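Input/output pair, single chain:
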Amino acid sequence: SAVSNLPTIVGSSLRSRPLPTHAAEAVLDKLNRGVVIFDAEGLVHYANDAALRAAHASEAISIVDGRLAFGEPAAQARFEGFLQQGRERGDGGTGQSSMVMRVVTGEGRPPYRVLLSPLTTTSDSRSADQPVQHVLMIYEPHGERHFPKRILRELYGLSDAEADLTLLLFQGESLDAAS
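Output:
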């Protein structure tokens, strides 16, 4: 079976622990936000289903020739600066700061919010030839999030009418329009 060395949370720190690739990917594919794991050169090592959908839905975020890219020049410049900062540090990403960006889709849709963050592991679990890795988390406002009324009723004790109103507000309707 294939094995992945994706970092896993052990105690309060990240440690590299082999996991069956199919299990790790299945878990990441269940998330409703995009996850892209890439190295210090921007080479993509993994992208979950939500990230691939975001890349296909807009040119705001894409994977070109195996590399992560942004359609907006300002976002691409910030991304390249993030990569450069990681390369210059040379400490395996342990001291690199995360970066949050707003990525405009330019298609009348709400912008993506993305988090770029180093994936740090303990020094004993990362070999010298293993590339530094980072993660991109894509938060798409209102993107493919469908909450069944049943869940809202069970979690918050809402009536059917209250759950309907909550769903309309979440979709961006004003209180007057939703009521």
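The radius of gyration is 19 Å. Confidence is low (pLDDT under 50) at residues 1-17.
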